[in-house]
Design goal:
With 165 residues, the chain is an alpha/beta fold. The chain has 3 helices and 20 strands. Strands 2, 5, 6, 9, 10, 12, 13, 15, 16, 18 and 19 form an 11-stranded mixed sheet that branches. A 6-stranded parallel sheet has the order 3-7-11-14-17-20. The chain is globular, with a radius of gyration of 16 Å.
Length: 165
């Protein structure tokens, strides 16, 4: 077990970490994006405000204690990302996918989801306030819920091969 722990620590230490930064426009974030993808970055205590993230791929990134406010995720793929305890406010997700990502204990306030799916992702302990979910042309509004994962599952927006649900 000790060797596995050392390898995991080395992998995390070798990844590029960004701490206590505020990203308020696309140019701020573009310095970390290559070929329309943000890969292998660790963001700690960062704030993302008013960003239009069109067609971006987030791969193997960690967003530890990060806040996303007034952000638009359109045609995005969030793959193998750790978004534990992330806070999303007044943000929208359209035609996006969360794949093998950890959203445990995240908060969604006044967010909107259209054609967005979650596959093999951890959705435990998510809180949702004033959230709008669109499935086809049907709107479901959530005033306040600590069962966000169950609502997504009932709407067939969650799929799982194994592991997370």
């Amino acid at each position: 077990m000790e060797i596995k722990s050392r390898i995991e620590n080395f992998e995390e230490e070798s990844r590029f970490k960004i701490r206590n930064q505020t990203f308020t426009n696309k140019i701020d974030l573009d310095q970390y994006i290559e070929w329309n993808a943000l890969a292998g970055r660790i963001f700690v205590d960062c704030t993302f405000q008013e960003l239009d993230l069109l067609g971006k791929v987030f791969g193997s990134c960690d967003f530890k204690n990060c806040q996303f406010t007034n952000c638009k995720f359109e045609n995005c793929q969030i793959v193998n990302c750790d978004l534990t305890r992330a806070e999303f406010g007044y943000s929208s997700f359209r035609n996006s996918q969360f794949l093998n990502s950890d959203l445990r204990a995240s908060d969604f306030m006044a967010c909107e989801f259209r054609k967005t799916t979650f596959k093999n992702s951890n959705l435990e302990l998510i809180l949702a306030w004033d959230v709008k979910l669109w499935e086809s042309n049907q709107l479901t509004e959530i005033e306040k819920s600590s069962n966000f994962a169950n609502i997504l599952k009932d709407m067939n927006l969650i799929s799982s091969d194994e592991g997370y649900s």
